[in-house]
Amino acid sequence: NSDSDYDLSAASESDFYYSDIFVGNIYIKNDTADLSVNWEWVPILHFSKELSNAYVQLSGTKWSVIEFTENVDQILLKREGRNISIKSSYSSDELIVDYFDFGSAVVKFAENALKELRKNHPKAKRNITIKGYEDDLKRLKKFYKSNIKSSELVQ
User: Fold this and answer.
1) CA R_g for the chain
2) 135 vs 137: CA distance, rounded Å
3) Pick from 45, 53, 59: which is nearest to 109 by CA?
4) I need a labelling partner for 77 at 20 to 30 A (CA). Which of 88, 92, 96, 142 fits?
5) Residue 84 backbone phi and psi in degrees, to 5
6) Can you tell me the mean pLDDT for 86-92?
7) Cα 101 to Cα 83: distance, rounded to the nearest angstrom
8) Could you say which DSSP state residue 2 is in?
């Protein structure tokens, strides 16, 4: 079955986490480091949710870990002031990014993931899990905007 053959209207959250529906590669890189995940089977919505949770968590803590459902690899995020250090268990590279740039990238990734899913699976819009992801995206955008406003007040 190709990815587009699935009727996702009744897929469960577990289906999105542990099956081969809506999977792909994740690109995490800049000019100096590359932590991309070119395994071709990373569950995109699960990664998006983990990434969003890490961003929100880093607003109040110094560490966050993204774990993959498919193996034991991890992405480790450490906040130091306005910067986030991103390392992984599968690469020796380290990315340093601005917290607010990271937030912008997280929102864009989540938006693009849902857009791609809707494009390839029109019936998915009826899925309760997808509706939950859409609600999560709305909360993520609101959190990002309030975070930006708070930082502007401090500057």
Assistant:
1) 16
2) 5
3) 45
4) 142
5) -120, 130
6) 97
7) 9
8) -
Alpha-carbon gap, residue 46 to 113, rounded angstroms: 10
Rounded to 10°, the helix 99-120/128-154 angle is 160
Coarse DSSP helix, strand, coil percentages of the chain, rounded to the nearest 5 percent: 50, 25, 25
- 103 Cα distance to chain centroid: 10
Q: 23: closest CA among 67, 64, 66, 70?
A: 70
Find where tokens 């990238």 sit: 105
pTM: 0.89
Contact call for residues 19 and 1 (beta carbons, < 8 A) = no
Alpha carbon 45 to chain centroid, angstroms: 7
Instruction: Give how far the C-alpha of residue 91 lies from the chain's centroid of Cα atoms, to the nearest Å.
Output: 19
Residues facing 43 on adjacent strands: 23
Residue 56 tokens read as: 């929100």
4 pLDDT more than 60 = no
User: Are 140 and 110 a contacting pair, CB within 8 Å?
Assistant: yes
22 in Cβ contact with 45 (< 8 Å):
yes
Position 67: which residue type? E
